[in-house]
């Protein structure tokens, strides 16, 4: 008796997303190492924490596939891209990466909707929400770097930014949550 509750297509996209999350973890690990070697210990720490979050996302996909009686395929992870040129480049690439990931999540949700796989659709919503938060966090990084002087930021202002990010909490407060949960 076949107890797999996932269609072939859904199983394939979920497996590939699991690998994508692992890839994101590797990218942030490499950015963290780069930032640390550039002297930005706070920013390095920020990326290391994010690396951990992406690993947790990978595990979430893995657990969901197993829960639905599907087959998990652990695949090779691509090597992270070359080191960023500077902080601006680093944050811009991080933002682009998160947006690409959001698109991949939307594709899963779209497919689940098409197939009327409401379990996967519901599972995917957690990631839709998570991506809002992740994009917001990186937008915040870009904003603060801009205030610090952008590409022309002085060493002092970068130092202050680095100190600040080292102390930052792991998640962003979303306007929607503030309005809904703490009116
Ligand atoms: Fe993720
Ligand atoms: Fe992410």
From TrEMBL:
<dbReference type="Pfam" id="PF00210">
    <property type="entry name" value="Ferritin"/>
</dbReference>
<dbReference type="InterPro" id="IPR009078">
    <property type="entry name" value="Ferritin-like_SF"/>
</dbReference>
<feature type="binding site">
    <location>
        <position position="131"/>
    </location>
    <ligand>
        <name>Fe cation</name>
    </ligand>
</feature>
<feature type="binding site">
    <location>
        <position position="21"/>
    </location>
    <ligand>
        <name>Fe cation</name>
    </ligand>
</feature>
<dbReference type="InterPro" id="IPR008331">
    <property type="entry name" value="Ferritin_DPS_dom"/>
</dbReference>
<dbReference type="InterPro" id="IPR001519">
    <property type="entry name" value="Ferritin"/>
</dbReference>
<dbReference type="GO" id="GO:0042802">
    <property type="term" value="F:identical protein binding"/>
</dbReference>
<keyword id="KW-0408">Iron</keyword>
<feature type="binding site">
    <location>
        <position position="57"/>
    </location>
    <ligand>
        <name>Fe cation</name>
    </ligand>
</feature>
<feature type="domain" description="Ferritin-like diiron">
    <location>
        <begin position="4"/>
        <end position="149"/>
    </location>
</feature>
<keyword id="KW-0479">Metal-binding</keyword>
<comment type="function">
    <text>Iron-storage protein.</text>
</comment>
<dbReference type="GO" id="GO:0004322">
    <property type="term" value="F:ferroxidase activity"/>
</dbReference>
<dbReference type="GO" id="GO:0008198">
    <property type="term" value="F:ferrous iron binding"/>
</dbReference>
<feature type="binding site">
    <location>
        <position position="98"/>
    </location>
    <ligand>
        <name>Fe cation</name>
    </ligand>
</feature>
<keyword id="KW-0409">Iron storage</keyword>
<dbReference type="GO" id="GO:0006879">
    <property type="term" value="P:intracellular iron ion homeostasis"/>
</dbReference>
<comment type="function">
    <text>May alleviate iron toxicity in the presence of oxygen.</text>
</comment>
<keyword id="KW-0963">Cytoplasm</keyword>
<dbReference type="InterPro" id="IPR009040">
    <property type="entry name" value="Ferritin-like_diiron"/>
</dbReference>
<dbReference type="GO" id="GO:0006826">
    <property type="term" value="P:iron ion transport"/>
</dbReference>
<feature type="binding site">
    <location>
        <position position="54"/>
    </location>
    <ligand>
        <name>Fe cation</name>
    </ligand>
</feature>
<dbReference type="InterPro" id="IPR041719">
    <property type="entry name" value="Ferritin_prok"/>
</dbReference>
<protein>
    <recommendedName>
        <fullName>Ferritin</fullName>
        <ecNumber>1.16.3.2</ecNumber>
    </recommendedName>
</protein>
<dbReference type="GO" id="GO:0008199">
    <property type="term" value="F:ferric iron binding"/>
</dbReference>
<comment type="similarity">
    <text>Belongs to the ferritin family. Prokaryotic subfamily.</text>
</comment>
<dbReference type="InterPro" id="IPR012347">
    <property type="entry name" value="Ferritin-like"/>
</dbReference>
<dbReference type="GO" id="GO:0005829">
    <property type="term" value="C:cytosol"/>
</dbReference>
<keyword id="KW-0560">Oxidoreductase</keyword>
């Amino acid at each position: 008796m076949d107890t797999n509750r996932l269609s072939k297509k859904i199983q394939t996209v979920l497996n590939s997303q699991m690998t994508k999350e692992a890839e994101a973890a590797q990218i942030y690990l490499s950015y963290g190492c780069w930032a640390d070697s550039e002297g930005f210990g706070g920013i390095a720490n920020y990326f290391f924490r994010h690396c951990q979050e992406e690993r947790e996302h990978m595990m979430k996909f893995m657990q969901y596939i197993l829960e639905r009686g599907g087959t998990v395929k652990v695949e090779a992870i691509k090597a992270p891209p070359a080191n960023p040129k500077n902080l601006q480049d680093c944050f811009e690439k991080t933002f682009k990466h998160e947006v690409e990931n959001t698109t991949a999540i939307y594709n899963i949700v779209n497919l689940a909707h098409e197939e009327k796989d409401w379990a996967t659709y519901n599972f995917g919503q957690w990631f839709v929400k998570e991506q809002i938060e992740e994009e917001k966090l990186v937008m915040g990084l870009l904003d603060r770097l801009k205030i610090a002087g952008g590409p022309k930021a002085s060493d002092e202002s970068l130092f202050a930014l680095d100190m600040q990010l080292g102390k930052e909490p792991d998640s962003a407060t979303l306007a929607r949550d503030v309005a809904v949960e703490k009116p």
